[in-house]
């Protein structure tokens, strides 16, 4: 069993490699883009909604409620970013139902890219709500001598976000593989369902932590 899908090389020509992380990331993106087009192409405001629109509204409302609970703010401005993070990570992990598929979320390169998106989103939301001066002033509070520590805090928070998701997905996959090797005939479906549950929970935790980081930065700026 490979620890990371980065180690599964599907094609190589010289220094150019196609590994499982790249292939399955593009597969997930194609599924999400195609699914979004199918679900949103016939939206209606009529009382009787289609099943696809009804499911879409349930998912959007559930994500919005979680954002509102985590940030104590109106969720509309955060919904596209946080919702995309959750649906992408959840889809990556739910597709592990198929035997040959490897979740891109089990790659440190993927989780680092997602964490960098959060790292960039924090100042963007801060500047949007407080302006450039208000956001930069946050790094000098309560004293200018705190600037290095504030910068280290921002970087370490990004690293922890990437490593946490990578470690949890990798450890969950290894645990399921070990249990399947021990009891291959008795509980294979239970073990597979256990892996899917871990994947959805980790997608939820990642999205909520991203929201908490953004909201805490905005609250710090307001308090300053």
Automatic annotation (TrEMBL):
It comes from the Bacteria. PROSITE patterns: ATPASE_A (PS00449). It is a multi-pass membrane protein. One of its GO terms (cellular component) is plasma membrane-derived thylakoid membrane. InterPro entries: Alt_ATP_synth_F0_Asu (IPR017692), ATP_syn_F0_a_bact/chloroplast (IPR045082), ATP_synth_F0_asu (IPR000568), ATP_synth_F0_asu_AS (IPR023011), F0_ATP_A_sf (IPR035908). SUPFAM superfamilies: F1F0 ATP synthase subunit A. It is found in: Cell membrane; Cellular thylakoid membrane; Membrane. PANTHER family: ATP SYNTHASE SUBUNIT A, CHLOROPLASTIC (PTHR42823:SF3). Belongs to the ATPase A chain family. This is ATP synthase subunit a. It comes from Oxynema aestuarii AP17. The gene is atpB.
């Amino acid at each position: 069993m490979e620890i990371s899908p980065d180690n599964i090389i599907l094609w190589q020509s010289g220094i150019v490699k196609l590994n499982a992380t790249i292939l399955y990331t593009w597969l997930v993106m194609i599924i999400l883009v195609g699914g979004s087009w199918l679900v949103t192409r016939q939206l209606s405001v009529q009382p009787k909604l289609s099943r696809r629109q009804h499911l879409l509204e349930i998912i959007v409302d559930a994500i919005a409620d979680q954002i509102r609970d985590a940030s104590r703010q109106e969720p509309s401005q955060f919904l596209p970013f946080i919702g995309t993070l959750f649906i992408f990570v959840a889809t990556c992990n739910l597709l592990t139902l198929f035997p040959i598929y490897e979740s891109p979320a089990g790659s440190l390169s993927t989780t680092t890219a997602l964490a960098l998106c959060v790292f960039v989103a924090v100042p963007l939301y801060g500047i949007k709500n407080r302006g450039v001066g208000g956001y930069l002033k946050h790094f000098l509070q309560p004293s200018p001598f705190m600037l290095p520590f504030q910068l280290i805090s921002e970087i370490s928070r990004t690293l922890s976000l990437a490593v946490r998701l990578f470690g949890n997905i990798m450890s969950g996959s290894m645990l399921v593989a070990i249990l399947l090797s021990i009891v291959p005939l008795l509980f294979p479906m239970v073990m597979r369902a256990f892996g899917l549950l871990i994947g959805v929970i980790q997608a939820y935790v990642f999205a909520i932590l991203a929201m908490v980081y953004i909201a805490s930065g905005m609250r710090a700026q307001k308090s300053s």
